Amino acid sequence: DDSFQAKQILAGKKIVITAGGTISPLDPVRFLGNRSSGKMGIALAKAALVAGAEVILISGHIAVSLPNSPSLKNIKVETTEQMFSAVKTAFLGADALIMAAAVADYEPVNYIAHKIKKQDQGDELKIYLKETPDILKKMGSIKKANQVVVGFAAETNNLLENASKKLQEKKADMIVANDVSHGVFGSDEDKVMVLRQDKTTENITETTKVEIAKKIIVLVAEELESRKV
Ligand code: CTP
Ligand code: CA
User: Fold this and answer.
1) Which residues bind CTP (predicted)?
2) I want to staple 20 with a disulfide (CB 3.0 to 4.6 A). Which of 42, 62, 134, 154 is the partner?
């Protein structure tokens, strides 16, 4: 879209975007993971670059190729802890954070430093998990008045109720509510609604991740514009 490019709505802005899934290693050869392809995060990074932003892309496991641009810095991470630490540093000097990553909510209580052997386990293997840090919630709680924080809400049921809870509890400026009850993972298509503080919920009519990403970037630019004093 030429007009989108021409307007350079994010010129001079620094945007941190997370993409893909984080993993929780069990032993040197195994991990717990999720079905994220990273397509939405990459589409957001591309749209932000086209809009003139400087982008820091913090990527977990992704199944698509990264954009190549002098305005893009990519930081690859594996675990939620690593993503948390990279986001914390990047967010300090950023105008906005978009948490499109599918962040692993739990990780093993004990990482086993050697390959888990069947002969040591018998016919049942118990794995105890503990919660990982909630990156979005932490960033929402430390953001400055001029910083915009966007999260996603992946839900299979009670979409709006759960998404609006996330908007409040994580102190996000915007939540992109995503119905993942059928065929979103790895797909080029998606269907979302946008929830914002003190604004009515907006139904996004676009249906491809690329078009939805552009729409989200326009909303982020508007939000940043409204913070100007
Ligand atoms: N998120 C995060 N850190 C986590 C978990 C999630 O930053 N440890 C972010 C995601 O990137 C997303 C938002 O929080 O932007 C919501 O993620 P989601 O998985 O939908 O919600 P959770 O808060 O993890 O709750 P649940 O999975 O139980 O629905
Ligand atoms: Ca989660």
Assistant:
1) 105, 115, 133-136, 152, 166, 170
2) 62
> Is there an atom of ligand 1 within 6 Å of 104 CB?
no
Residue 31 CB-density burial (10 A; 0-12 exposed, 13-18 middle, 19+ buried): middle
* pLDDT given at position 182: 82
Q: Tell me yes or no: is domain 2-107+129-227 CATH 2.60.120.40.
A: no
Answer whether 108's CB lies under 8 Å from 127's CB: yes
> Does residue 158 have an active-site annotation?
no
Any binding-site annotation on 42? Answer: no
ipTM: 0.99
pLDDT digits (tens, 9 = 90+) for 37-57: 999 999 999 999 999 999 999
Q: What is the pLDDT of residue 186?
A: 83
**Pocket lining: 178 vs ligand 1, CB cutoff 6 Å:** no
Amino acid at 217: I
Q: What is the mean pLDDT of residues 190-207?
A: 94
